Amino acid sequence: MSSLANPPQDRMPTATPIAPAASAVAGPRMGKDLLASRVAPKKPTWSPRSKAILGTMGDEPEVTEDEDFFAADGYSATEVFGGKSLACVGYTYDDIILLPGHINFGVEDVDLSSRFTRNIALSVPFVSSPMDTVTEHEMAIMMALHGGLGIIHYNMTVEEQVSEVRKVKKYRNGFITDPLCLSPQNTVGDVRRVKSENGFAGIPITVDGKMGSKLVGIVTNRDIDFVDDDETVLDAIMTKELVTATEPVSLIEAHRILRQSRKGKLPVVNSNGELSALISRTDLLKNRDYPVASKDSTSNLLCGAAVGTRPGDRVRLKALVAAGIDVVVIDSSQGDSIYQLEMIRWIKSEWPELQVVGGNVVTQRQAFHLIQAGADGLRVGMGSGSICTTQEVCAVGRPQASAVYNVSKLARRFGVPITADGGTASTGHIVKALAMGASCTMMGSLLAGTEEAPGEYFFQDGVRLKRYRGMGSIDAMTKGSEKRYNWTGKAAVKVAQGVSGAVVDKGSLKRYIPYLLQGTRHGLQDLGAISLSEMHEYLYAGRLRIELRSPAAQREGGVHNLYTYEKRLF
């Protein structure tokens, strides 16, 4: 049998393997200009005491930072995960510790930009998991605004998932090219219904209620706030004296008009007075407050969605593509199946440019098959999540640190980024996942309990909690997630591979994500890596040094020897 490290040519993916480079991990801001600003390491200088000690050993040696110097402490990833004496052992994040490097840059200089797929670059390597207690539109919006990405779960009807995606795509900066319109004959009740369903009430009024028709007015909250009768027609209360911009107009010029007019909405019309676009004042604030937001080519927020591999998921995906998703995540506990391979090939035949993330995988063989089928990215993890019991129930999986390193080692040859999914309970785990070769981390429990996660808060023993459950739990399976584990739908008995529980309130992502980002930046700074791409270069060159931790070392690395203490994250 041929080794996966050197697969036969007739089994190679259509994508040509590339030399190890930053293409799978480097983000939009990384470049020579950032690296050039760093201070070059100086030749070591010896203190008088050091010279005296060296003098007893003969002539003072010429010591430089060569490969032997870097190998003096710890071990390379190859030695830890592939050494002959250790190859039979799998390691979790807690089993390893990363040794510090040399710091010659500030923490503010650390560049976390990366890639989720071949063609999707992110300023922040954070992705929210497609779980029904983690990611719906509020989570996806906030993740994208901070430079990450949210993946809408599919434990809902097709129409509900499409609605969630549209809410994310509508929440955008720049020109709104397909605003919702009403006619003068619509009523105040119609406006209130739109506001309830979509979260806004600034609606342009055209002669027939359609985009592209002659603009005759606009209705905002101030027009309807003091109108009690929902049957009042809009023609009686809409604003008819309008400030507009005429095509062609640049976004900068449109924003200038909006600022000067102090209006909430600026309709853009053509020479015939027909509505062609709309700009919102709140978009100006979004641009100011979230400068690294993840956007597509039309300035819409990036959004992903998950689907399964059953025939009905093809119908679901067609609706999601029409809604404007940027990436689809094939959601399966074990990704190396004929069902997922056929799904990926079908997607690539229907929409060649649509980015596809396959998974979940934990071995190089699994990864190779999905890359061969056309996957643009991979999710790595099986049974390592805090609410997952796959390893316990099925006796199949892999410790997460070993899985991430081994899969990334293969995927980088084909320029396919991998996302570490599961086992992430702290910023330290995020740093370790990225250090083992991941381009992004997918988070479930870390984000559950935030204000943006679905569900209501409740109190238990005086603690504010929010429910969190695995997609393999019986509760989630009854809602539809069983297809993640039962691909044919013919299993008579549901076997749970997850649990339901609760997590502590973490507040809003507006404060929580900056904390996660700063903790991750500090980790890279301590390693002496100014960017993810540089850290990956250190990893594969053997300059990133690692040691294994004994149980005593793990205890020492946490809070210990205190009678009481308070742990505040930020």
What does this molecule look like?
- Mean pLDDT is 82; it is low at 1-13 and 19-32.
- The chain has 20 helices and 20 strands.
- With 570 residues, it is of the alpha/beta class.
- The chain has helices spanning 32-36, 48-55, 67-70, 77-82, 137-145, 158-170, 188-198, 221-224, 251-261, 281-289, 311-323, 338-350, 364-373, 390-394, 400-411, 427-435, 474-477, 509-527, 532-541, 551-556, and strands at 96-98, 114-115, 121-122, 126-128, 149-152, 203-206, 215-219, 245-246, 265-269, 275-280, 304-307, 327-330, 355-361, 377-380, 418-421, 440-443, 457-460, 463-469, 500-504, 546-548.
Instruction: Compute the number of helices.
Output: 20
Using DSSP, what is the number of strands?
A: 20
Structural class: alpha/beta
Radius of gyration: 27 Å
Percent in helix? 25-40%
Mean pLDDT: 82
Cα separation of the termini: 53 Å
Query: How much of the sequence is in beta strands?
Result: 5-15%
Largest sheet: number of strands, sense, barrel closure: 8 strands, parallel, barrel
The order of strands across the largest sheet is 4-5-11-12-13-14-15-16
Shape label: elongated
Low-confidence stretches: 1-13, 19-32
